[in-house]
Amino acid sequence: MQTLVFQSKVEMGQAAAVKAAELLKAALDRKGHASFVAATGASQFEFLDALTSISDVDWSRTTMFHLDEYIGLPETHPASFRRYLKERLMSRVHPGTVHLIQGEAFDPRAECQRLSCLIAGHPIDVSFVGIGENGHLAFNDPPADFEVEDPYIIVELDEACRRQQLGEGWFASLAEVPHRAISLSVKQIMKSHSIVCTVPDRRKAQAVYDCFTGDVSPQHPASILRQHNDTYVFLDADAASLLKH
């Protein structure tokens, strides 16, 4: 794992985007096609703005998978991750194939199975992820399941996670934040050839410290990234403020 710290969120996002584009282009050159996983949330704003401004990625030869989505939340809701990706990524660069999580599916378990079958046929070249205020990776809140083999799983969202979504302004009250989501599992994320992790803001500083200085533990889910051979962590100065080096 490589960790890089930048003075501002904009610099962080630009650097992460350059690395992400490099990894996508390498896969395109190597295989003629690239598969990637896209994250959402406030941590990805600067990164996605910069990535979608890079002109020399042939997005028509990419397949995009979706990291996580609330169960039961309509796409029209401001917090919908499908809506987020359509507005901030898909409408700008038009990936060739897109597999979104249908959070409103009548049977969430069947939706997990559908997506799991799809991703099994597309080894992921690069996953874009963030880290939650509680250290979560995707929606795998602590204690995260490091052993489940299924690519997509149903997860329960803890209160810290739900309060983060409220604090970021996606919901008007805690009662509105869903309790369940469909998420890519930790094992599936770790199967990615490369991972680009983008973490801004002082409110993430404790999670960054816990995940990158303590033990690798399900209590700090993103700590597992330290065991991946090709992970790049991009922090702004605020997120890195508790680290000594």
Describe, in plain words, how this protein is organized in 3D.
Helices cover 32% and strands 19% of the residues. It has 245 residues and is an alpha/beta fold. The protein has one domain (2-236): Rossmann fold. The strands form two sheets. It has a seven-stranded parallel beta sheet with strand order 1-10-9-6-2-3-5, sandwiched between helices. Helix 7 (205-213) links the parallel strand 9 and strand 10 (231-236). The relative contact order is 0.19. The model has no long low-confidence stretch (mean pLDDT 96).
Q: Class, according to the CATH hierarchy?
A: Alpha Beta
| Mean pLDDT across every amino acid position | 96
CATH T-level topology: Rossmann fold
Tell me what portion of residues adopts beta-strand conformation: 15-25%
Apparent shape:
globular
Structural class by secondary-structure content: alpha/beta
**Could you estimate the helical fraction of the residues in percent?**
25-40%
N→C terminal distance? 15 Å
Please write the string of helix (H) and strand (E) elements: EHEHEEHEHEEHEHEHE
Quaternary state, please? single chain
Shape-level CATH architecture: 3-Layer(aba) Sandwich
Strand order of the largest sheet: 1-10-9-6-2-3-5
Radius of gyration: 16 Å
Count of all domains: 1
* Poorly predicted segments: none
Number of helices: 7
Largest sheet: 7 strands, parallel
Query: How many β-strand stretches?
Result: 10
